[in-house]
Amino acid sequence: MNCPLVTVYITNYNYERFIKRAVESVLSQTCNYFELIIIDDGSSDHSLEIIHELIPKAKQDLGENNVKLITQKNMGLNRSNNIALELARGKYLVRLDADDYFDPRAIEVMTNTLEKNPELGIVFPDYYLIDESDNILNLYRRNNFQDEVSLYDRPAHGACTMIRTDFLKKSGGYNEAFNCQDGFDLWLKMISKHQVENIGLPLFYYRSHGKNLSQNQEKIYISRGKILNEYLKNEGLRRLRTLAVIPIRGKNIGKDFLPLSILGGKEMLRWSLDSALKCSSIDEIIISCESIELIDLLKSRQTQNNQKKIHWHLRSEELAKANKDITDTLVDIDQNFESLKAQAYCILYVKAPFRDERYIEQMVDTLSFYPVDCVDGVVNDNSFFYKHNGNGLAPINQHPFFQFERDDIFKRAGGIHIVKKEFLKSGKKLHEGKTGHMLLDEKSAFYIRSKFDLEIACSLCRQEELNQSPYLRNSNEFKNPLVLS
Fold first, then answer.
1. In the beta sheet, which residues pair with residue 165?
2. What is the three-class DSSP state of 400?
3. What is the mean pLDDT of residues 46-70?
4. In the CATH scheme, what architecture does the domain 242-384+396-478 have?
5. Distance CA 248, CA 269 (A)
6. CA angle, corner 356, sides to 75 and 344, nearest 5?
7. What CA–CA distance (Å, rounded) separates 188 from 167?
């Protein structure tokens, strides 16, 4: 095999418990037209000893020149990805993480799919979710990309996804500025230029355990935002001119008025206001409320050194009613502030104080990139849900072992939505438009609906202060009254 059709590479960092299973799954494939590159990224456990024991068998099966072992100091996943890309001789490239393993048919099936359609850039299969002892926990099936998918906002795995090597090289390889979410970086590069396809067979085993990078929600979701932002810049794509809207309901601004309640040393309103002021993708800010008294109070505290101008919208009692859709308020704002030339409105509710400003930036970028009318902040919630059908509770979910992507349940969270101005002219409500999503970590998703929730939030702030959290990195500032700057 002078020129292998496929390059398979395994990345390993301290996975001595799993590396043997990963390598053996490659050597057990139903085809042998591939080369194998193993990259050990500075392991300090016994991984290398195990790998060296496996190398002779690999060379015997694949040929002396088709097996390579690369050892290096710990340099991170994307550096390892690029090393594999530099060394790859195969027409196709696929990564296997050392804690996962292939089905015996994986390489053959994915290769055949790419061979049949030269327009395909990447293919990716369904997969089994397994625990540390190889017990199968779930079978996860992706949507059928040929028939069911028109919005490509749910990327394939970075691992166990096969890609045309020349496509990846032409796109510049992997961005080493990001140390996680290589799959998302690759996805953005591919979907704008090439076809992608899901193979409706479970062809790899994805391990869930305490050391998984995927366990770190905040790191993953914030990295996705940075990757998307970098992609927009590199492609010369402009962000939509976006105005933040902070809606406040209620006229009685007494001591129990939630927007002026103190949390973490500052008023609730200021949490959302500060995040909007810090966010580079927000051009101007509109505070919408039905109380002239509140507007006068906030104006009296406003300083003159705002980098972003704050505007005031007096909302009618009719628009402020609890049963009134926020879309109607946005339409009224758009008519009254037409001179601001907004292209999008980002709604920030004061009841979500821990929302990171980087999520606001990501939401603007998401609306600017994907062909959608709106984007909602959400959390994925695949708990077992019921509905009452008149005869008792009936489960909404499918059988828990078979998890279909189309059955995933998302819950609105984080008090953040964004909508294109042009959609407001359609007369439809926000939930009636084509809606994209942005996943939030648990803390950013936290929403205060009651005094009990407020007590929890205060407790979190006290704990974060003890831990010197970045949420409270400037505690002296938070002791001051509300200053709009």
1. none
2. coil
3. 96
4. Alpha-Beta Complex (3.90)
5. 9
6. 110
7. 13
Return the sign of the alpha-carbon dihedral for residues 71, 74, 78, 79.
negative
What amino acid is encoded at 131 in this protein?
D
Distance CA 227, CA 353 (A): 25
- 242-384+396-478 shares the fold of 6-215: yes
Contacts of 391 by beta carbon, 8 Å cutoff, 6+ apart: none
306/288 Cα distance (integer angstroms): 18
For residue 240, what is the DSSP state? Answer: P
For the record, the structure tokens of 453 come out as 């929730």
What tens digit of pLDDT does each residue of 38-52 get?
Answer: 999 999 999 999 999
Q: Which helix (H) or strand (E) holds 102?
A: strand 101-102
Nearest to 245 by CA among 363, 329, 151: 329
Distance, in Å, from the CA atom of 191 to the CA atom of 339, rounded to the nearest integer, reads 36
Alpha helices in 88-203 (DSSP H): 106-116, 165-170, 182-191
Quote the tokens at residue 242: 């976006």
- pTM equals 0.88
120-178 residue pLDDT tens? 999 999 999 999 999 999 999 999 988 889 999 999 988 999 999 999 999 888 888 88
| 199 bridge partner residues | 125
Give the three-class secondary structure for 222: helix
Greatest Cα-to-Cα distance within the chain, rounded to the nearest angstrom: 82
Number of Cβ within 10 Å of residue 263's Cβ equals 19
CATH number for region 6-215: 3.90.550.10
- Tell me the per-residue pLDDT of 366-393, one tens digit each, with 9 for 90 and over: 999 999 999 999 998 878 888 999 999 9
> Residue 151 is which amino acid?
L
Task: Read off the tokens for 170.
Answer: 């032409």
85, 54 Cβ separation under 8 angstroms: no
Work out whether strand 374-380 and strand 195-207 pair parallel, antiparallel, or are unpaired. Answer: unpaired
The two structure tokens encoding residue 104? 């015996």
- Locate the DSSP E strands across 214-264: 242-248, 262-263
Two tokens at 378? 């959400």
**Cα separation, 145 vs 199, whole angstroms:** 9
Tokens at 240, concatenated: 């939509």
* 218-to-223, 233, 440 alpha-carbon distances in Å: 8, 23, 7
Tokens of 349: 């509710």
One-letter amino acid for residue 233 of the chain: K
The C-alpha atoms of residue 385 and residue 381 are separated, in whole angstroms, by 10
Q: Give CA–CA dist 485/478, Å, rounded.
A: 13
Taking each helix axis from N to C terminus, what angle separates 217-234 and 182-191, rounded to the nearest 10 degrees? 30
Report the DSSP pairing between strands 101-102 and 34-41. Answer: unpaired
Residues composing the chain = 485
So where are the chain's domains?
Answer: 6-215, 242-384+396-478
